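Running low. Invent one:
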Amino acid sequence: MPVSQEAVPLVVVFTLFLAIAFVAVGLRLYVRIAVLKNPGWDDWLCLASACCALATYLSNMGTVASGFGNPLSSLTPEDRLTALQTLWISPPLWGLSSALIKMSIVTSYLRIWSSRPFLHLSRLLLLLIAIFGLTLFLGGVLACIPISLSWQPPNLRDSNHCLNLPRFMFVTSTLNTALDLLVLSVPVPLLRRLQIARKQRIALLVVFTIGAIVCIASAMRLVSIYQLQETADPSTSGITLGLWSGVELTLAVICACLPTLRPVLARVFPRLLHTTAAGSASTWIGTGTGTGVRGGGGGARRLTGDENGTYRMRELHSTDLSDLGSSSDGNKPGDNSDVERGVIRVKVEQEDVDKHDRSAWI
C-alpha cells in the first residue's frame, strides 16, 4: 500500500535522527575502545539503547509500509493486521531503549563523581530506571491476554482482558518525563562547583541544552498520547506520537554520546576545543610538579597538581589510564594531546583539596 502523506514527516525525521545517533554511538565506541582503551558499562548500555531504537524504527517503518496514517477502516484486512502487530511491539521497544539510555547517562556520571552520597543516589536512580523500563516493556507486550487481542482494533478489544493502553502510556510517559528531568538535574549542583575553562563550560552548556530539548520532546510526546486517548483509531493520531517518540529517543542517545567525543571533535575543531582560554593560559598550564591519588570510598581519581593548586581531572578511571598525562609521553599538561584524549582540566582551590568531603572537586 502507498505510504500515507501523513507519515512522511515521521519517516524523514526519524530516519535522519537515527542515522546521526548511530554515527555518534560509533564514534563514541571508537574513542573509548580504540583511542582511550577504556570502555565501560555506560558505553555498552548506550549501544544496547541504540539497537533497541533501531528495532523501534523498523517496527514503525513496517507500520508505515502497511498504510499507517490512513484510517484503519480503509486498510485491507492483511495490511490492518500487519500494521497493528508492528504497532503493538513499538512502544515496548521504545520503553526499553529509553530506560537503557538513561542508565547509560547515570552510569557515565560515575566516571567523574564518586563521593559516597552521589554513589548511593546514582545506584538508587539506576534501580528505579531499571524497574521503570521493565514495567514499560512488559506492560506493552502483555497489554492484552492473550497477546493476539492486541492486534485487534481498539474498539473491538475486550476491556476485561486488555489494559487501557492509552491511559497506561499516559501515566508511564508522565513518569518518563519526570525521570528525564531528574537525570538531567542530578549533576547540576556538582557541575556548578567545578572551576573549568570557559570553552569547556560552553561545551557542557551545549550538552545540557540538548538534554533540555530531550525533556521538551518528552513533554510533546506526552501531549500526543493525551490526544491519542480521544480517538479509537491509533492510525490517524499515532503519527505525531511516533514522531516525538523517535525525536526524544534519538536525541537522548546523541546527548549521551557528546561528552565522549571530545578527542574526535578536538582533531576536527582544534581551536574551538583547545583547553586554554585566551588570556588565561597561566591558569590552566602548570609544571606538573606532583601527582596524587585522592578520593573517598567510591573510588580514586588521579590528579596532577602544581604549586598554584591547579589540577587535571581525568574523565576516566585512573586505574585504566594511569599512563595518560604522564611525562613519559613527552606532552605537557596543557598540550593539545590532552584535549584529543578527552582529559578534563579542572582548577581546584587548595583548601577544597584538603577537605575530607571531596565532592567539591571530584
